[in-house]
Amino acid sequence: MGIRLIIQGGLTVNRKTLSLFTLIAVLVTLPVALGACSGSAENETKVRIGEVTRSIFYAPQYVALSQGFFKEEGLDVELTTTAGGDKTMTALLSNAIDVALVGSETSIYVHQQGSDDPVVNFAQVTQTDGTFLVSRKPVAKFDWSMLKGSTFLGQRKGGMPQMAGEFTLKKKGIDPHKDLNLIQNVDFANIPAAFSSGTGEYVQLFEPQATMIEREGKGHVIASFGVESGKLPYTVFMAKKSYMDRNQATIQKFTNAVHRAQKWVNDKPVDEIAAALTPYFADTDKEVVKAVVKRYKDQQSFATDPIVDEQEWNNLQDVMQAAGELKQRADYKALVDTSYARKAIEAAK
C-alpha cells in the first residue's frame, strides 16, 4: 500500500505515482502554503490586558473579544483578571501587563506619588458608577433619609465605588461617618457573602451580585449610585506613557476595536449582548446576565465612545476631593490622551 502525503489545505498525493519533480515541487511549496495559513497569527501584535475584576459592567471589552474586533485589528489579546485596583496598577507599572482596565482614579494616585512615567487614560469603557443600594427588607417608597442610623455595609476605602457612594450620600444630606454605622473592613470579594449572612441593613453592591441576592430573596435593589453620582470616567483603558509612545499603532488599533464594540453594544438588543458575554460568565445564570445587561444599559453605564471627557474628569476629582483622597487636582492633559479615541470615532463613520 502506497504512503500518502496529506498536505494542509486538503491536497492528497500517492507516492507510487508521484514523480520526482512533482515531489520536489510539493516540498518547495509546502512551507509557503503553511505560511499562508499561519501568517495572520504570526503578524498579530500581542497585548496583555489586566482587568481589575471580572464584571458584566465591562461588557464592551468582552464583546471586542468575542466578536473578534481585536482580532480583526491584528491584535492577539491576552486577558487576565488582576483582582483589585492596587494589584492592577502594580502589574502595569512592573510591565506584567501592557494595558489596564481599571478606575481612572488609580492613574491619579500614581501621579500623586510623582511618577516619571505617568499612566495615561486613553479609552473609556464605563461612564457611571456600577454599584446599587440593596436593602435587606423591601421598601415601598424609598427615601435616602431612611439610611440614617442604619448599619451600612460599604465598599473599600479609597476605591471608586466607596468614593462615589459617599459622594451620593453626602449629596442626599447624609454624613456616612456620623449618620451611619459604616462597615468598611470587609474585602471586596466577601461583601455579598457578608450581607447574605446577616451583616448590615443596607449594602452597596456591584452586579451581578445585587441581582443574584435579589433573586434569592435575600435583599432588594432600591437605588442606583451610578444614577445619583453622575457621569464619571469610571473604568478606563490606560497604559504607561512610555508604552504608548513606543506602540502608537497598537494603541490605535486597540482603541478602534473598543469603539467598534461600544457601537455594537449600543445598537444590539439585550439578549444578543448577553449571548456575546456568556463565554466570560459561564458560571452565571443566563437570565441574570440578561437582567444585569439591561440594568446597566438602561442607566447608560456603558460609554458609547472612548473619549475621556474633561467635564467627567473634573467630576471624578470632585468625588475624590469630597472623600479626602485627592492631594491636589491632576491636570487633565497630563493624564488623558483623547487623540486615539477621536481617530477611532472618525474611522468608524
TrEMBL record:
Pfam families: NMT1_2 (PF13379)
Locations listed in the record: Periplasm
GO cellular component: periplasmic space
Listed Gene3D superfamilies: Periplasmic binding protein-like II
Domain of life assignment: Bacteria
Keywords: Signal
PANTHER family to which the protein is assigned, alphabetical: ALIPHATIC SULFONATES-BINDING PROTEIN-RELATED, TAURINE-BINDING PERIPLASMIC PROTEIN
Similarity comment: Belongs to the bacterial solute-binding protein SsuA/TauA family.
Name this protein carries in UniProt: SsuA/THI5-like domain-containing protein
Taxonomic placement: Bacteria, Bacillati, Bacillota, Bacilli, Bacillales
